Description:
Oligomer: single chain
Helix content: over 70%
Amino acid sequence: MTKKTRRRFSDEFKADAVSLVIDQGYSVSEAARRLGVERSVLDRWCRKHRQQPSGIPGRQEDDRDAEIKKLREEVRKLQIEKDILKKAAAFFAKESS
């Protein structure tokens, strides 16, 4: 008797799998086959997604918003650093001439 271990999937994986079906038009069977999950599992995830009220933001959307905010701040800092490096390069090029 070999005991099967139950596979766990992250919320992000589930959301991506549901997106294949709902947003990209894959059939549940095809998406499940490509992802290596049972069709019934993916079908359950899709039903659960459809039952969620669309007006209430979910945790995943909050996580995405937080990540977007963090990434925008990082982009802003990198742009400032790039501008400083440009000015420094121009200054040293001018000095060496």
